[in-house]
TrEMBL record:
Belongs to the metallo-dependent hydrolases superfamily. CpsB/CapC family. Its EC number is 3.1.3.48. It is an enzyme of class 3 (hydrolase). One of its GO terms (molecular function) is protein tyrosine phosphatase activity. Keywords: Hydrolase. It comes from Ferrimonas aestuarii. This is protein-tyrosine-phosphatase. It catalyses: O-phospho-L-tyrosyl-[protein] + H2O = L-tyrosyl-[protein] + phosphate. Gene3D superfamilies: Metal-dependent hydrolases. It holds the Pfam family CpsB_CapC. The keyword S-adenosyl-L-methionine does not apply.
Length: 241
């Protein structure tokens, strides 16, 4: 699996709390077959005012620690950016860590609040695509407004966004509403790729072997390969060149 959404980077958001916990999570990721990860700490002006400049030294230290443990896990730095005009409009988006490139365009992973699809989101997605940026909406199945009106997910895609589902949503990790929405979005072919959105050892861990095996049985190996390796690698490969 190529995992494009993880909060493994220690002590920068609500993910790994210590370096040792982050290293344990890296070992868990390797054990379940993850070979490459783009780490995506939150960038959220209110709660996690991270930046490329502040995250880079933390990432480099963690990358060195993973190498010192001889873990066969390739790492790159990205971010999960909370939708906000201050972060995305004008040229501000150019200072944000991307998760890779697709068709020559930088790819930004964007987070909506769980309660709603913010007013202006469709217009923002269209504007970003006009700037030759490829937006990705993280875990739409966990947004309460999308749960209630799945057509909103189609609207996001029609505006130009990719949709990233979370593996744990299919087993009820985020509640029955998110599970039902994830299943319906998968049935409708609306997910472009899946990711772990792992946070901690004991909560939303990167140990996905059992879940991925269940998804392979439910949706077929060919489709799961496309969702967990093919497109994720197309996006991320520039980060590992």
């Amino acid at each position: 699996m190529i995992d494009l959404h993880s909060h493994m980077l220690p002590e920068v958001d609500d993910g790994a709390r210590t370096l040792e916990e982050a290293l344990e999570m890296a070992g868990m990721a390797v054990a379940c077959g993850i070979t490459h990860m783009v780490l995506t700490p939150h960038i959220n002006l209110r709660h996690y005012p991270n930046s490329l400049e502040s995250l880079t030294p933390v990432f480099e230290a963690f990358q060195a620690a993973v190498k010192s443990r001889a873990l066969p896990l390739q790492l790159a730095l990205g971010a999960e950016v909370r939708i906000a005009p201050e972060l995305l409009m004008g040229t501000a988006w150019q200072k944000l860590p991307t998760i890779g490139q697709l068709n020559g365009k930088p790819v930004l992973l964007l987070e909506m609040p769980y309660s709603q699809v913010p007013a202006g989101t469709i217009e923002l997605i269209r504007w970003l695509t006009q700037q030759q940026v490829q937006p990705v909406i993280a875990h739409p199945e966990r947004n309460r407004e999308v749960m209630a009106h799945l057509s909103l997910a189609q609207d996001l895609k029609h505006a130009g966004a990719l949709l990233q589902g979370t593996v744990g949503a299919f087993t009820g990790d985020f509640g029955e509403g998110a599970k039902a929405a994830a299943t319906q979005l998968m049935q409708g072919g609306l997910f472009d790729y899946l990711a772990s959105d792992s946070h901690r050892q004991d909560k939303r861990s990167p140990q996905l072997s059992t879940v991925l095996a269940e998804l392979n049985r439910a949706w077929g190996e060919e489709r799961m390969l496309a969702l967990t390796e093919t497109l994720p690698w197309q996006i991320a490969q520039s980060k590992f060149a």
